[in-house]
Design goal:
five-stranded antiparallel beta sheet; alpha+beta; four-stranded antiparallel beta sheet; 17% strand; 11 strands
């Protein structure tokens, strides 16, 4: 990964209340709905996904929907349904499911239905697996995925007009994981609180590391503060637009064409070699997000508020344009009640998942 460029610890708006930050976007949504004569058009932007992946999408459904070419780039995974009635045997059952899928520990466990990194944790042994299962709501599906344990992660936001052979990488976000470095004197708590960025986000990092906060970190030891590549969970984002290449765009053209009726969304990928990734090689897709995805490079602390809104206005304009094109092709959105049920279910579950790592 390119090293982190000098930048302010946080942008002026980076952690504003979502209700405040997205207020202009809601006004833009109303205008788009009037212009294209449809408020539900985003629900048919990706007809191959339930509700186009706008809300309440199943991570495993999206990944399993991929064809042979696309699956070559997806980190292997399986799913289990948590059943509290089988608590005595559920670790053995999960291990059997992993073995049947050709997987073994370590893995990543995450909710099949979730967003913004909720409930994502690395699982390195059976004790951690047992703890994760106990904290997971019964009756819900868990994705168990091969751990791609490398530092490089990116969000590749891809858009293609329906029927077109080629699309564009609308946004490339490079995700860096925050660390603090020990000096042999300070505790982990002290290192976090005195860091220029982490100290302003202590509410994210301190609960996550509560068991070792008062331990002195040995000199030169680096402690990673976040595992999930989610901005809301504390990852550091940088705009990677200058690293987009024709080879990278061609690769994601190939992948997206192999996912039925997928035109708009973000691929979250991990890689060990950044130069190879830029050439469209040697990376693993860990998640595919549909119409609910965002061009996350706006959370680069160097981004101006005006530029963030321009990006989001363009993103939503593309979303409505694609939805309108698919309406002309004969696709129709699901009923409001179904959509609202999806949203309510996701909102309820996100609050009860295990803590994010």
């Amino acid at each position: 990964m390119p090293p982190l460029d000098p930048a302010p610890p946080l942008s002026r708006f980076e952690f504003w209340s979502p209700r405040l930050f997205y207020l202009p976007i809601w006004a833009w949504v109303v205008l788009l709905a009037i212009r294209y004569r449809g408020l539900r058009l985003p629900l048919i932007a990706n007809p191959g996904l339930p509700a186009s992946g706008l809300v309440g999408e199943s991570k495993s459904h999206v990944l399993r929907n991929a064809g042979r070419e696309a699956r070559c780039w997806i980190a292997p995974f399986t799913t289990i349904v948590r059943d509290a009635r089988e608590s005595a045997n559920e670790v053995a059952g999960a291990m059997a499911a992993l073995e049947a899928a050709g997987l073994s520990l370590p893995i990543v466990a995450k909710p099949d239905l979730g967003c913004r990194g909720a409930g994502v944790r690395p699982i390195r042994n059976e004790a951690e697996l047992a703890a994760y299962l106990v904290g997971f709501p019964s009756g819900q599906t868990i994705v168990l995925q091969q751990l791609v344990d490398v530092e490089g992660e990116a969000g590749v936001f891809y858009i293609r007009d329906p029927g077109a052979a080629h699309g564009q990488i609308f946004s490339l976000t490079l995700k860096h994981f925050p660390h603090v470095e020990g000096d042999g004197v300070a505790t982990l708590r002290e290192l976090i609180l005195r860091d220029s960025r982490a100290g302003q986000l202590a509410h994210l990092y301190l609960p996550r590391h509560r068991e070792r906060l008062d331990h002195v970190v040995p000199a030169d030891e680096r402690v990673r503060l976040a595992f999930a590549g989610s901005h809301s969970r504390g990852a550091i984002f940088r705009n990677g637009a200058r690293h987009v290449t024709e080879a990278l765009t061609r690769r994601f053209d190939e992948i997206a064409r192999d996912i039925p009726e997928f035109w708009f969304g973000r691929f979250d990928v991990r890689f060990a070699d950044f130069d190879a990734f830029c050439l469209g090689e040697d990376f693993s897709i860990v998640e595919i997000n549909g119409a609910g995805a965002e061009a996350t490079h706006i959370w680069d602390s160097r981004t101006r508020l005006r530029d963030a809104y321009v990006t989001l206005f363009r993103q939503f304009a593309q979303l409505w344009k694609i939805g309108a094109a698919n309406r002309s092709r004969g696709f129709r959105a699901e009923p409001w009640r179904t959509f609202i049920d999806r949203w309510l279910t996701e909102r309820r579950l996100v609050g009860v998942y295990p803590p994010t790592a």
